Amino acid sequence: LAPICRARTDGRHGGSWARETTPRVCSRAPPTTAPHTWRVIKLLGSGGFGDVYKVAKVNDPDKTESAMKTEMVVGNRQMLRLKIEVLVLMKCHEQTDPARKGHFVAFVDRGKTDKFKFLVMGLVGPSLEDIRRKDLLKNYSKATAMTCCIQTLTALRDLHGIGYIHRDIKPQNYAIGLGEKESTIYMLDFGIARKYTVACHKQIEQGCKDDLECWLYMVPLQKFLHTSFSSINLT
């Protein structure tokens, strides 16, 4: 890996996506990987906990592009979001049934440097929120709307099936695939996911029902099945 310095952007910061930039590359390689394993193509987004880059493996004849999520190391402060995301994503892909991991991006690589930790995973397209904002005035067919509802709920079922709750269900955390996978919806961002326990069923902690409740609010906001959901009292 050629480690990445935090790039300046001319877009917005915080939790929103930044505009494309030309990333800078540091000369020092991380201690856990061979030098120059990954080549940074561009910055995709920037948030309060780190950045997301489009990357490609050096000398890869297929030139497959992936996404690299980074988490900065700030002094002695321990940031666990990326570690949790790695654990959940690996757990998702340990399942033997292929149908149970179809809505999770591929796990490619992980590692750390003296300045940041990183996770390399499959690259996906725009989020459902991006699509909603772009096509706000367009009407989706009922078939498309129903497919979105089924796939987002299926991803949630499969996550719960391995013993984790997401705790941040929203349109920004679902995205469509690229190329031949453009009809597949993927669940993203497991940084605050947690294993659920028996206490969840006693409503002491957040549990599966909380993810489902968030999903119910997400669907009409996306304007999926607008007519069908308009008469439902979500309270």
TrEMBL record:
Residues the entry annotates as binding ATP: K69
Entry-linked SMART domains: S_TKc
Keyword Lipid metabolism: no
UniProt keyword Membrane present: no
Region annotated Disordered, chain positions: 8-31
One annotated GO molecular function: ATP binding
Record-annotated Protein kinase domain positions: 38-235
Keywords per UniProt: ATP-binding, Nucleotide-binding
Protein name: Protein kinase domain-containing protein
Organism the protein comes from: Angiostrongylus costaricensis
